[in-house]
Amino acid sequence: MVSLDSTSTSGSPTPQVLLLPWDSTSPDHVQRMVQQRIACGWDEDAVEGWRGRQETGTLNLQWIVFEDSEPDREFKLLKHTQTHPQEQEPLVDSASFFGGQSRAVPSPQKKFIPVGHISLGRVPAAYEHLGLTNEEGAYWIGILYVSRALHGSGLGRKTMDTVENVATSEPLCAKILALNAINPNDPENDEKYKALGLTIPPASDSIFSSLKRGCANSE
Questions:
Q1: Which candidate, 183, 161, 160, 176, places its Cα nearest to that of 123?
Q2: Phi and psi of 215, rounded to 5°?
Q3: How confident is the model at residue 198 (pLDDT cuts 50, 70, 90)?
Q4: pLDDT by residue (tens digit) across 110-134?
Q5: Helix, strand, or coil here: 61?
Q6: For the chain, what is the mean pLDDT?
Q7: What angle do CA 17, 18, 20 make, to 5 degrees?
Q8: Angle at alpha carbon of residue 112, lines to 109 and 115, rounded to 5°
Q9: Side-chain-facing half-sphere of 27: CA atoms under 13 Å
Q10: CATH number of the domain at 17-215, please?
């Protein structure tokens, strides 16, 4: 289940972001992913198992990174690192594969501080009977985390827009995107979020608009 942080409460322009592949062979990248999963509240123990899936192109995790052109970049990074001081050290863009294919590592290598992550993975088996498979051009937005320090900034919405562009480009060439979203009528929501010490994200028209776009054929 993912929550789409799609509404900016500050009235500021939508953040400018790019997505950089998670390097599952890098100890620094792996450690940062564990740290962010701990901050998210679940699946920190799953990171080790994600490494092989990243290499084969069945997970395709990417870091959410502010563009250099983002006007409030330094302020937002400071807000993030003050909330998560263990994430102050930048990572290096070092992934040599993405989407199950080799990737040219940029030179010079870019240093960055990720403020979240998102995946474009294989559709869960429960939905494959609908014909939603990677072989048919379908990808599942199955892992989405945005720094809690930046909730309400529009970062989630911009990330969803950006991931659609990445998904429909080489090497994935997605035709269909699908995802899970929070059910606002789930009677177990209160218990689940209370156990994590979190506030239930508000449901909004924007959330369901993003869901519709994600499930639409991109051709």
A1: 176
A2: -95, 0
A3: low
A4: 999 999 999 999 888 887 777 777 6
A5: strand
A6: 82
A7: 145
A8: 150
A9: 0
A10: 3.40.630
